[in-house]
Automatic annotation (TrEMBL):
<feature type="binding site">
    <location>
        <position position="145"/>
    </location>
    <ligand>
        <name>Mg(2+)</name>
    </ligand>
</feature>
<feature type="binding site">
    <location>
        <position position="145"/>
    </location>
    <ligand>
        <name>substrate</name>
    </ligand>
</feature>
<keyword id="KW-0456">Lyase</keyword>
<dbReference type="GO" id="GO:0000287">
    <property type="term" value="F:magnesium ion binding"/>
</dbReference>
<dbReference type="InterPro" id="IPR011206">
    <property type="entry name" value="Citrate_lyase_beta/mcl1/mcl2"/>
</dbReference>
<dbReference type="InterPro" id="IPR015813">
    <property type="entry name" value="Pyrv/PenolPyrv_kinase-like_dom"/>
</dbReference>
<feature type="binding site">
    <location>
        <position position="91"/>
    </location>
    <ligand>
        <name>substrate</name>
    </ligand>
</feature>
<dbReference type="InterPro" id="IPR005000">
    <property type="entry name" value="Aldolase/citrate-lyase_domain"/>
</dbReference>
<protein>
    <submittedName>
        <fullName>Citryl-CoA lyase</fullName>
        <ecNumber>4.1.3.34</ecNumber>
    </submittedName>
</protein>
<dbReference type="GO" id="GO:0008816">
    <property type="term" value="F:citryl-CoA lyase activity"/>
</dbReference>
<dbReference type="InterPro" id="IPR040442">
    <property type="entry name" value="Pyrv_kinase-like_dom_sf"/>
</dbReference>
<feature type="compositionally biased region" description="Low complexity">
    <location>
        <begin position="15"/>
        <end position="27"/>
    </location>
</feature>
<keyword id="KW-0479">Metal-binding</keyword>
<feature type="region of interest" description="Disordered">
    <location>
        <begin position="1"/>
        <end position="27"/>
    </location>
</feature>
<dbReference type="GO" id="GO:0006107">
    <property type="term" value="P:oxaloacetate metabolic process"/>
</dbReference>
<dbReference type="Pfam" id="PF03328">
    <property type="entry name" value="HpcH_HpaI"/>
</dbReference>
<feature type="domain" description="HpcH/HpaI aldolase/citrate lyase">
    <location>
        <begin position="47"/>
        <end position="198"/>
    </location>
</feature>
């Protein structure tokens, strides 16, 4: 998995001493972001989303907005981003629709745009054309939501401009008739994990859990982690802390990683046997993520 180790902006203190993420940048880089909060672009509270603990915020002008209201939603998003607010992502309409062209034209070059989430991606060309129309600098997060998209996932992951893959689980189930059972959904999730690795992308982002029940969100986030996905779409701010906790390294794992790294340094970084290299890689990955997420050893 590609890890973005660029320094991030620390949370800004509020008047009462609490810390909230700054509106100009999220505290966790998008390459390793765990929670991706979807916000209705027409009716959502952008300010509340920006203050939330979500690693990344996505303003949704696609499925969340009625077709007749899309121009109004797009204008609201563009006005927010034009002022440099939020540094947020935008889920835009898919390449096959008439809305796509208006979406990319309205967003191109806006200072508050972190990147776009391209709905219903089914081909590498969808990503590349979006990337080019946005000026060749804005990252494209490809949301894969169909049987065709899953089977084309490797090509999508290798497309110029592709930043990360995400799973549109609800639309995938509608397209294929698949149930929400974990076993039935294991193949498409694993396919995105493998494609991301082949394309040298960060780990993919899982689809959302519709339930607000914390035990259910925790269980589903655990499935996400077990299959190798490293982020999750979130529909409600109440889900964010659970998703962040489950996808982060456990404090006990952080303790093991730092003990291993300290012992490795103490013996002069000598590799003793074949198990040392994979353990070293795992320890370094856990340590990097723990520092990025602020997880302390138990």
């Amino acid at each position: 998995m590609t890890i973005d180790d660029r320094p991030t902006t620390p949370p800004a203190p509020t008047p009462d001493g609490a810390s909230t993420p700054p509106r100009t940048a999220r505290p966790v880089a998008p390459a390793i972001a765990r929670s991706w909060l979807l916000v209705n672009a027409l009716t959502g509270d952008y300010e509340a989303a920006a203050r939330s603990r979500a690693d990344q915020v996505v303003l949704d002008v696609e499925d969340a907005v009625d077709p007749t209201a899309k121009p109004e939603a797009r204008e609201r998003v563009a006005a927010w981003l034009a002022e440099g607010e939020g540094h947020t992502w935008v889920r835009i309409n898919d390449r096959s629709t008439a809305f796509w062209s208006d979406d990319v034209d309205a967003l191109a070059g806006l200072p508050g745009l972190a990147g776009v989430m391209l709905a219903k991606t089914e081909a590498a060309q969808d990503v590349t054309e979006t990337f080019d129309r946005l000026g060749g600098r804005t990252p494209v997060l490809a949301l894969v939501e169909s049987a065709l998209g899953i089977e084309e996932a490797v090509h999508i992951a290798r497309a110029r401009g592709a930043f990360r893959l995400a799973f549109g689980s609800g639309d995938y189930r509608r397209d294929t008739g698949t149930s929400a059972d974990d076993l039935a959904m294991a193949y498409p999730r694993s396919r995105l994990v493998v494609a991301s690795r082949i394309g040298s992308l960060p780990g993919p982002i899982d689809g959302p859990t519709t339930s607000r029940n914390h035990p259910v969100v925790r269980e589903q986030s655990g499935v996400t982690v077990s299959l190798g996905l490293t982020g999750k779409l979130v529909l409600d701010v109440d889900q964010v802390p659970v998703v962040n906790e489950v996808i982060s390294p456990a404090p006990s794992d952080v303790a093991w990683a730092r003990d291993f790294l300290a012992e490795f340094e103490a013996r002069g970084r000598v590799i003793r046997d074949g198990s040392d290299l994979p353990r070293l890689g795992r320890a370094q990955k856990i340590d990097r993520l723990a520092r990025a997420f602020g997880v302390n050893p138990s």
